[in-house]
Prior knowledge:
Helices cover 57% and strands 0% of the residues. It contains 7 helices and no strands. The protein has helices at residues 9-23, 29-38, 44-55, 63-80, 88-109, 115-120, 155-169.
Amino acid sequence: MNDQDYMSRSEVAALLAMMAAYHRRRPGEADVLAWQHQLRGLTLGECQAAVAAHSATSNEITPADIRERVRRARERSAARAPKPPPGPADRSRFSAAARRGMAEMYQRTGWTRSPEQAAALAVVCPVADCRAEAGVICWPNHRTEVRQVTTRVHPSRIEAGREALSSKENPA
């Protein structure tokens, strides 16, 4: 354990002085040492907030009461914290779910894709700054190649899909 895990003696003394104002206690040097040890890992601000909140409902307070209030406050804070953006594995999983959902919707409504779009979606997009997975439409707004409006895929992907389809039909 390092010095960062403990509030300083002056911080603990300030906390005990705050508690004395609420509860009319007179802390001594032994109290400062005991409370410093019991409240290790907590900040003065966290402890002061816990004392203020606890004093509204009770005339007695222990280090355990403070620790519990700080723990709950940290949990609430962590629950409100923004979640990190999805990573590559999550994006892949989300894309697969989107493909399944779209396939089901096409099946239910009786829609069919154009043959060239179906062939293009069977391959990964060859455009370097797109690289959309098989079954996923191409990303719009690329500097190197504009996707077609009707198929929503890049022309080079349509060509790659045609080549892949013809190689399956005519194996060498």
